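Because discrete structure vocabularies remain unfamiliar, we first show an illustrative case, written as a sequence plus integers encoding its fold.
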Amino acid sequence: MQIAGFQPNSFIDFKGRIAALVFTPYCNMRCWYCHNKSILDNPELLSEDEILKKIERDKFLLDGVVITGGEPTLQADLLDFIKKIKAMGLDVKVDTNGKRPDVIRELIELKLIDYIAMDVKAPLNKYFKVTPTTLESEEILRESINLIIN
């Protein structure tokens, strides 16, 4: 999996858990206020193997791993990466913008995640004020919201 950043521990990103943070590059939104702009285009990538070794080394200190971004659901091998984390006995949280409900559905159906957080950026009919979006995007976002709620 492509990894653009790593933080070995956080006490605030996975409620009630100590978690490592894995930042994926790229995003299918361009929010004007994004705090991770530096990893959206042409980031310097980290070695997946090295990150997994660090997580494995520290797993006795961790409760889980948060996969965030950018947008994690753009990663073709996200599910395989999560399976590697789960094999270490750690919980997994995914932060998403909700634009890939197909991936969200698969993560939920395969029971690969312990928590999912969707950043709802504005009322759906006002998304265009914070990120380039279309009416089609509104339905896609609504689908993701319903998947997560249910």
